[in-house]
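Ticket reopened. Same input as before:
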Amino acid sequence: MIRTSSLTYQYNGGSAMRFPDVSIEQGAHYLILGTSGTGKTTLLHLLSGLLAPRAGAVHIKDTEISKMGEAQLDAFRGKHIGIVFQVPHFIAALTVSENLQLAQKLPGNTIDVKRIESVLTQLNLSSKLNAYPSQLSQGEKQRVSIARAIINSPAVIFADEPTSALDDKNCTEVTALLKQTAADNNATLVIVTHDNRLKSEFENKIILEEI
Amino acid sequence: MNLLKLAWKNLRSKPLSMLLNLMLFGLGVGLVVFLLLINHQVNKNFENNLAGIDLVVGAKGSPMQMILCNMYHIDAPTGNISVKDARPFFNAKHPVVKQAIPLSLGDSYKAYRIVGTDTTFVDLYDGKIAKGRMWRQDYDVVIGSLVADRAHLHLGDQFYSSHGLADDGINVHDHGQKFRVVGILESSQTVIDQLILCNTPTIWAVHDHEEHDHEEVGDHESHADGHDGHDGHEGHDHAHHDHSDAEIEDAPARVFNLMDHPEESITSILVKFRNRGIQALNFPRAINEQTDMMAAQPSWQINRVRDMMGSGTDMLRLLAMAIIFVSAISLFISLFSSLRGRKYELAILRVMGGSRKTLFALIILEGLILAVLGYLLGVALGHLGVYILGGQLEASYKYSFSPWIWLKEEYLILLVLLLLGFVASLIPAIKASKTPISETLSGGEGA
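Engineering reply: fixed in the latest deploy. New output:
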């Protein structure tokens, strides 16, 4: 499902980062752990195509995304990859529903309001359909960003420190929701984190060493 | 939820910035449109009223004043000329003059000028009788469509005239015989819409009265303006005080030949040439040098008026273009500075499946929407300006300005605005399309 081989990346002026080869099967839930400075986020951006590797290859769903053109990759990401960030960002001028409609429209899918309603209901957000992002609490924002990540029923959901800004109660809730929605949508879930609260929740772990 | 909608919602979420940009564009475009509308209509007015007149001959004075007075009826006469002096122009065998039309001015009704002339004057402007008939008798008047409308005159109505062009109620000839409306002209979009026309002897008759009363002999011009009221007038008795409508139809035409009255005077002569040969070219100079009269060519004088007006409107147009230029810069600045606050949104759009082109198009669309809305506001303001100020301009130009015309230049302005909107948003759009998504979304956490 997700395969990497001899992946390296180098920031401008930085030393080269080598990542261990990763192989994650369809529908599995993985945790990528590491202290800060181990390149967790870089790896997640490489896996999701937000960064292009200096060398090596990334395969998702038998497609080598590291060889795709930029615009092609944008569309692929929109359709098949959902990403949840540490700090959720939305289009502030649009309501929750409109943000999700845009997420359907941009990669070329048709707008499906029923799907939006059902996903929001799943995440216990049905009352926030017409709320603006600025009107949401931190926990609600993170749940909406999960909704956005799964709106197109992606093959993979990546989450970058999804719980580090949340209190224990929200942390447990969001983790459970991520696992639940990934399972419901038959999506592979990969969480990058240094949040020790998550360790016990996942069986599969990849630990990054300091470079 | 498409890009256009997104662009619009983005703009709407910053209403103050949008308002500023719209006001700037609206002001600039509004001023340009206003100037275009006024200029166009003033020029059209001048052209419509040239009426193929090659020369105006009148008393010596300012040639421009003479043209404005005798062709556009927006100024006082330069004086009078005697019929004796004018006689050669009415010679059918004159080598240069094909047609000569006498004008006698001096009176008005409710600020609408009364013109004593012959019926060929109406043909000059292709005037057609809408109701009633042409004048046949002294004191018969045919009125322009605008006069009928604004002064509420109908067939058979009677009125006294006032001296000069002012409607101040002071200089009313409230004695003697009344003018009687026998005909109303169709609207012709020329100056005759605003005139009250009668035969030449009527003007003489009104003024003969004056001279008897005030014992002013010979100098008509002394009471062209600022004349005092009239008093003590009981002695005169006129036979035809009450004309009925039936009489309008039946009255026999008065036979009148200007040449039989060499001792009288008229204000001016409108002249058409047989051809524009050398003789015609030298004709005005010959008149100016060899007679007590003055000749002036309408086209020359009108060009002088245009030049004078032109420098004023040129300044305003320059100002308008400066405002539009500043609007474009303001648009550029507000789009450019909005990028910093929006970098997360732009990066998120990429994550959601938007491409660089999507981001580029989004910013360009925002610029174009503002430009188009600014244009629409400007066009509305420009036409509104003509609507509001048209009344004031009408009083001084004797021409009604319509806000309801649409010039093809206005489409041209839209093109210019679209181009400006595009150019102003080009650099912000390129910058937006280069938003580094990974760097932005890793929030500085980096490696």
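The longest strand of chain B covers residues 97-109. Residues 214-244 of chain B have pLDDT under 50 and may be disordered. Please confirm and we'll close it.
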